[in-house]
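Entry:
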Amino acid sequence: MSSLDMRSSLSVCALFLAAATNLHAQSNVGVEIDDLVDNRVSAGGFSGTLELRVKLKGTNLDRAAAARILVKEARDDRGNVLADPSSVPDFMAREYNSGTLNVSLKQPARAASSVKIKGTVELYVPARDPSALVKVDKALAKLDAPLASKALKDAKIEITPLSHDGYAAAMKARKITDKDIAMIREQGKAHGASDKDIETAIELAKAFESMDSDPPEGAVILSGKKADFDRIYRVEILGTDGKPIDVGSRSSSTRGESSIMTLQPSSPAPPGSTLQLSLLTQKSRVSFPFELSVTLP
């Protein structure tokens, strides 16, 4: 390679790196209130909520595929804590709801007149990391075996497309046993729950189990650990022509550490279809801290 070619290659690399970091370097993303619903309730044991709809403001937001709001702290002017920092919402596609995001908090005190919120705006920008987009060719040709992908292996993500029999076996393995019920009771007592609350939790678990049914005809069913699915923003089905197949409905079911994702395409996906997974890698996520003061009605 000549010195001129080398300089050209270095210039291209420099431009790529500059583009990849440009969002964070030149952006100053913040939030502002778009709508507020104050549902303070004082009747019986019912408790209300404070629902906020916020919109993002700043530059280069069009480069983000999705966004979410992580609330680290929320208090009313009476000192009451209104948020659970351990609650992590899913990313929301930027084209949904005109790009607005919802924030749900506990109800403020009846006498409270304002709320202060501290948190982070997190953007998902897959273009910042080439490894964020993984394609697995002929992913549905071999069912009931983990997807064969070096990229997924490197990311330590294991996803398995299921056959009808594989799905039935997975559902059987997820059925609530007497041991599970005993564990619910034990954990409930350890946390100080009443016998009534414990029995309600058991009935709720059984109700969710009863909702399991055979998947619709032509559905694409993926199984894996919840922690692995938590690192996937979206799964798309690409036809043999490389174009996305319309997915009419998506659903996920989690029991313990295992999850099952069901994709219902508008037309059956051919065996030669490709699965395209958008991964939430560290490089593909950009965070901006924010503080917000909300005046209550």
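The domain at 3-128+284-295 is CATH 2.60.40 (Immunoglobulin-like).
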